[in-house]
Amino acid sequence: MDDFLRLSADTSRFTYGAPRAFAFGDDGGLLWFLRSTGPTDAFDSLWVLDTATGAETRLADPRALCSGSSALPGPVPDAGTGPVPGVLPVAERRLRERIRLVAAGIGSYALSGDGRSAVFALHGRLYRVAAGAAGPPEEVPVAGPAFDPRPDADGSRTAYVTGDALHLAPGGRISPADGARWGVAEFAAAEELRRSRGHWWSPDGLALLAARVDESALPRRYFTDPAHPELPAEDFAYPEAGGPNADVQLWVLGPSGARVRIDWDAEAYPYVSDAGWATGGAVIRDAAAADAAASDTAAGDAAAGEILLTVQDRLQRTVLLLSADPATGRTRELSRTEHPRWVDPMVPGTPARLPDGRMLTAADTPGGTARALAVDGVPLTGDGIQVRRAAGVHGGRLLVEAGLRDPSEQQVLLLDPETGGVTPLADGPGVNSVLAAGGTLLLTRAAADGIRRTVRTPDGREFTPVDLSQPLPYRVAPVLERVTEHGVPTALVLPRGHVPGRRLPVLVDAYGGPGYQDVSAEPRRWQAKQWWADQGFAVVTVDNRGTPYVSPAFTHAVYRGFSEVTLEDQVAALHALGARHPDLDLGRVAVRGWSYGGYLSALAVLRRPDVFHAASAGAAPTDFRHYDTAYTERYLGLPQEDPGVYERDSLIPDAPKLTRPLLLTTGLADDNVHPSHTLRLSRALTDAGRPHRLLALPGVTHMTPGGTREKVMALELEFFREVLG
Length: 725
Prior knowledge:
Elements: H1 3-10, E1 20-25, E2 30-35, E3 43-50, E4 56-60, H2 62-65, H3 90-98, E5 104-105, E6 110-111, E7 117-122, E8 125-130, E9 138-140, E10 147-151, E11 158-162, E12 165-169, E13 181-182, H4 187-192, E14 199-201, E15 208-214, E16 220-223, E17 234-237, E18 247-253, E19 259-261, E20 271-277, H5 290-295, H6 297-303, E21 307-312, E22 318-324, E23 331-338, E24 352-353, E25 359-364, E26 371-375, E27 378-379, E28 386-394, E29 397-403, E30 411-415, E31 422-426, E32 431-437, E33 440-447, E34 450-456, E35 462-463, E36 479-483, E37 488-493, E38 504-509, H7 527-534, E39 538-542, H8 552-555, H9 563-580, E40 584-594, H10 596-607, E41 614-618, H11 629-636, H12 643-649, E42 662-667, H13 676-687, E43 693-697, H14 708-724
Parallel strand pairs: 3-5, 38-39, 38-40, 40-41, 41-42, 42-43
Antiparallel strand pairs: 1-2, 2-3, 3-4, 6-7, 7-8, 8-9, 10-11, 11-12, 13-15, 14-15, 15-18, 16-17, 18-19, 20-21, 21-22, 22-23, 24-25, 25-26, 26-27, 28-29, 29-30, 30-31, 32-33, 33-34, 34-35, 36-37, 37-39
């Protein structure tokens, strides 16, 4: 590898040493976060910043706590009598895949109700630490490898999962031994619905709301490591499109073994996308009173009488916010959001209840021009604001992350819930985001000049959490343009020092699928694209219809079909850019991508070889009949109801058409896009006598950790140089 690729691998794409996983505690007086010691240190420690002084204190060092730890442990059984140093429990390893977490050390933590203490798991061991503690964290005895620990209101007890059972420390097992998994999020929730947890304490600390997950009806998927034939296969339950989902129930586990099941029409609304008690679940609280309410006894007793849960029908056309009585399990509907195609999942923080009891929901403006907010059904925002997240309440006004000018940027706004009046809070260029509590704000701005985080207190003081990450090697200035009649966002990156008039082969480097925006002002994502440009390419990125943040109508364009819209927009945008920029040599066009981007790449050379002359397709879902339920059915529907949709989007029937060079890459430990997707296409190509190349990576997951992505990039460069001349 060259210097850039080596630096990118060593720094995990310039993320090691950067603070992350921020959470306010103690009514905004403390800011907790994770950070490693420098740009090549993979092991995150737990830190806290005192917002009165700006002083940072490291509370937990993973190397001092757990010797023999491994940054990227391989598959191991989740069995035995206790934690194993250096080994992640299987549940935690899989959750890290779901949330795309590559850092080692302390992966996550949870705060007590007052925000003054935290618990975390480290390679199956459980630790508790308080802000201001003089000594090291206290290790808490556990019944087995601990996963997802959660403290109660005062931090005196911790709930955790081991061996698919829910336990208390101190205490013991509190979930029944009925063959189900307790206290965890099923695959569909964690991968596609943004719910990565499965148990929640009541505000008074007397009861737990817990998910019961029965996966017995699901098919099993298996992995074996060809490099280690002596190891047994690993398997897990996978919800395949058109097949059964996990049976998810919610139970209240109370004192003395009391159990109450939460009752809703789970047959009509099988997906639980959010849940929690009224002070910690789907409630938007005023940041000035949030932590006080969580620790106040009277407020806690009142809130303990209500559970809030968000459920969805299987095709995600209807989303309900329900209120549940924990004493009886009965539920009542608080709000209903509907869409004839699907309810867009891209507005976190909704549906929710405001401090005054009114309901905050998301809805499309007429014609699908913008994603908007409404209070009790009355619209607050119009076509000029693309709402992306409801981030809380600050000073009586809603904190909102939204796009105002261009889809590549994001601003932070204060929105008056009575009048809809908007006040910009962070309106500079780039991607701005916010976290708030007790009147204190954490504002983050990611722009061309880097990433800056600012803590702003109610009395006007400001602090900057230390960032120890590697400075970005390039300041990239992509040419951003909206093209075609659909206003498709595009970006063009040229080699540094490019001399106008010199013709360049084109590399289309894009994702193109729902849920991810490629053309963004976030600076880290342009580093690899600049490296590709410096190898002699004009690098083009296109956010075709179906991708988020342009408008709901733009996103919903892939309803009942991925391939036609994706490829049509990529080709049209490429031609539009070629007409505007004559240095782009459209007679030499390569395309590369991973995941949906891999699907796009293979699709391009199979169906439009007149436009695309070579492709590198990584981790491509080649047949969506074999992808997961919650993602696939949201866009394509049920395969048994319209099999033609799935047949048209499958790449397998196109195998005999291949006439261009194609490199297929797959990780053999990928539990998201299983390697069978790539292998099925390779077999179809072989059966059709179509030459291609196959790169199978033993032990590699969908995240391509440990420098794998950079190694694959080097191989892709050799491939493109060879086949494009």
